[in-house]
Amino acid sequence: GDSVTQTEGQVALSEEDFLTIHCNYSASGYPALFWYVQYPGEGPQFLFRASRDKEKGSSRGFEATYDKGTTSFHLRKASVQESDSAVYYCALVDTNAYKVIFGKGTHLHVLP
Amino acid sequence: NAGVIQTPRHKVTGKGQEATLWCEPISGHSAVFWYRQTIVQGLEFLTYFRNQAPIDDSGMPKERFSAQMPNQSHSTLKIQSTQPQDSAVYLCASSLEGNQDTQYFGPGTRLLVL
Asked: Which chain A residues have a beta carbon less than 8 Å from that of B45?
């Protein structure tokens, strides 16, 4: 079945550091790819999506580019802030479908 | 602009009791989804309604779990005879017709079965 693999566990950075969270997917079709962010006590929040090869999604300074060749959708941010501390989920939805398949999540800690 | 509303936010039940969780989707959203979140399994799809009709319940445990959507403004997830392994955060999400892949989540109900 379809699956998403992302940087496991926790990532600790200092403010203004560059962030990369790796995400690779496996799908039989041509899925739409997503990043969600989850803060404590809240549900996952839609961050952005991309649905075509080479399409870039972005929001709040975060960005990721759909790469069909390497089946990747890595999350990047040039300069993180303490307020970015949260759990980030890479996800996919297969073509003409609706079921969101989530990765295991990456817990980002940004130290002041 | 209210998001998805879930009640209660926290629920504690004894083993064998029934738990009913409520979800109010975003107004105008015709698709409603339920997911379960645990440390071990992560986020798992449970079931999906479109225009109140059940479309896919493939993620629902076959026994004890049921979901309904009696009207466009609310859905319920019922767990009968709760077991400790049912302890999880249950998340409801909604989306617009024709854009079901972009889903907006509620804050979840944290269920603890003692």
From this structure: 99-101
Per-residue model confidence as pLDDT tens digits over A31-59: 999 999 999 999 999 999 999 999 999 99
**Partner A, chain B 59-78, Cβ-Cβ below 8 Å:** 59
- Gap between the Cα atoms of B46 and B65, Å rounded: 10
State the amino acid at position B84 in one-letter form. Answer: P
* Pick from B65, B61, B56: nearest CA to B20: B65
HEC secondary structure over chain B: CCCCEEECCEEEECCCCCEEEEEECCCCCCEEEEEEEECCCEEEEEEEEECCEEEECCCCCCCCEEEEEEECCEEEEEECCCCHHHCEEEEEEEECCCCCCCCEECCCEEEEEC
Which of A89, A98, A103 is facing B100, going by the closest CB pair?
A98
For position A58, what pLDDT does the model report?
97
Q: Which residues of A touch B108 (CB under 8 A)?
A: 42-43
Quote the CA–CA distance of B90 and B37 in Å, as a whole number.
6
Of A62-76, B16-30, B87-101, give the lowest mean pLDDT range: B87-101
Nearest residue, CB atoms, B101 vs list A93, A102, A103? A93
